[in-house]
Amino acid sequence: MRILFLGDVMGRAGRAAVTARLPGLRANWALDFVVVNGENATSGAGLSPEHAKALLAAGADCLTLGDHAFDQKDMLSFIETEPRILRPLNYAKTAPGRGARVFAATGGRKVMVAQALGQVFMKRPFDDPFSAVDAVLRAHPLGGAVQATLIDMHCEATSEKMGMGHWCDGRASLVVGTHTHVPTADAQVLPGGTAFQSDAGMCGDYNSVIGMEKLEPMRRFVTGMGKDRFTPAAGEATLCGTLVETDDRSGLATAVHMIRLGGRLAPSGP
Q1: Is 165 within 8 Å of 173 (Cβ atoms)?
Q2: Which SS3 state, helix, strand or coil, does residue 130 take?
Q3: 268 inside domain
Q4: How many Cα atoms occupy the beta-carbon half-sphere of 190 within 13 Å?
Q5: Which residue range is the domain that position 89 belongs to?
Q6: Which helix (H) or strand (E) holds 80?
Q7: Cys-Cys with 197: which of 60, 66, 187, 222 at CB 3.0–4.6 Å?
C-alpha cells in the first residue's frame, strides 16, 4: 500500500494547502490511504467540525488530533458522530471519541490508525503512551487482521518519539511524530521493518514561528511578556508529511519518503 501522512495542519493557510493539493496527490501518487493531523487547523488551536468536514472532503481517510483535541468545544460532541476523527489514546479516560480504529483502504484492505500523547515536556501529565500503544498493537497484529498500522506520536521530545518508533519496530508500518511543527531529516526504515520519522512537520506557512505570525512569539522571547494573542501565519503554506510504502503480506515498510511541497521549503517527495 501507499499511505500518506500529513503533519499538523496550521490555520487557514494549512487548510488551503491541503484542500487544494490532496485530491491531485491521491490520484497522481495512487494513494491507498491518507491520514492528516488536524489539531491546529482552526485558528491554530483545535479543529472545528466545519474544518474537519473540509479536510475529509479533500481526501483524508482519517484525521488525528493531539493535546489541543478539544480546544474547539464543538468537537466534544462531533467526534462521537464522526468515526474518521481520532483523539489521543491516553488523553483522558472520560474523553469522548476513540484513540484507535481500523479503517477500510483500497482493495478491501484494512489499516489501523492510533495516536498517543507523549509525557516529556508536555503541559499536563498524560497516561503512559507506551502501554496504551502496546495494547492496541497486540489487539491488531500486523499482517493478520490489518494490512497496515500507523501510529501518530504527538509530543515535544524527539527522544520520546524515537523511543516509540523502536518500541513499535516490527509491529507497525509507520510511526511518525507530530506536534513540534518542524520536519526532521531522519526518515528511515528501522531494523524490524517499521518506517519512522521524528516529526512530519506542519502544513502551514514556514515564514513564521512554528506556524504563528512572528511578532508576538518574538516579543515574548525577548521581553518575557505577552501583549497580543498568537495568530496563525497566513502566507503560502508548505505541505509537509511522510509517505510510506508497505508490503501487504507482512504489513511492514518497503520504503519511506519525506514530503515537502510548495511554500518556502525545498521540495522533496517520492
Answers
A1: no
A2: helix
A3: no
A4: 22
A5: 2-207+238-261
A6: helix 75-81
A7: 187
Radius of gyration of the chain, Cα coordinates, nearest whole angstrom: 17
Q: Any catalytic annotation for residue 68?
A: yes
Q: Which one from 68, 154, 179, 257 is the annotated catalytic residue? A: 68
Q: By the 8 A CB rule, do 3 and 244 touch?
A: yes
- DSSP structure class, residue 236: P
Can you give the pLDDT at residue 123? Answer: 76
Question: What total number of domains does the chain contain?
Answer: 1
User: What end-to-end distance do the CA atoms of the chain give, in Å?
Assistant: 14
Side-chain-side CA neighbours of 61 within 13 Å: the count stands at: 20
Q: Distance between CA atoms of 11 and 43, rounded to whole angstroms?
A: 5
Mean pLDDT throughout 84-91?
Answer: 96
Number of CB atoms found within 10 A of residue 217's CB: 15
List the beta bridge partners of residue 6. Answer: 36, 241
Report the C-alpha gap between 60 and 67 in whole angstroms: 20
CB 113 within 8 A of CB 100: yes
Q: Using CA atoms, how far apart are residues 165 and 177, in angstroms rounded to an integer? A: 9
Coil, strand, or helix at residue 104? strand
Burial of 128 (0-12, 13-18, 19+ CB in 10 A): exposed
| Global confidence as pTM | 0.96
Quick: pLDDT tens for 154-173: 999 999 999 999 999 999 99
